Amino acid sequence: MEFDIFYQLPQADSQNSPTRYRELIEEAVEADKLGFTTVWLAEVHFAPHFSVMPAPMMLHAAIAERTRRIRLGLAVNLLPLHHPMRLAEETAMLDAISGGRVDFGAGRGAFPLNYRGYGVSVAQSREYFEEAL
Fold this sequence. Notes:
Radius of gyration: 15 Å
Structural class: alpha/beta
Largest sheet: 4 strands, parallel
Helix content: 40-55%
Number of helices: 5
Number of strands: 4
Order of helices and strands: EHEHEHEHH
């Protein structure tokens, strides 16, 4: 049997992002020690009460340096919001520094707010997703 952990990382008004990031990293380190299989991080933009994690690979890089076994899951990369080559390079780099522990997830997302903040058309998101994939 395998156990994973999944984070969207909401933040209350009484909390701050640096503390939330440190807490997540510490929890991932503990999950690695306890034998969890994967720590999954979700990419979300412009919705701090729902998530303060616009760049999960940045957190995974920090987690990779403090862990040895746990897999680093990206659930999901919002492909229409990324340049495909840049995302491929960043994913490959994270995989290299983590010793091959990256699980890549791709999707379009479900929140129009993510798209509005980047000025990307939700109506064209399927087309952008297919092109990026």
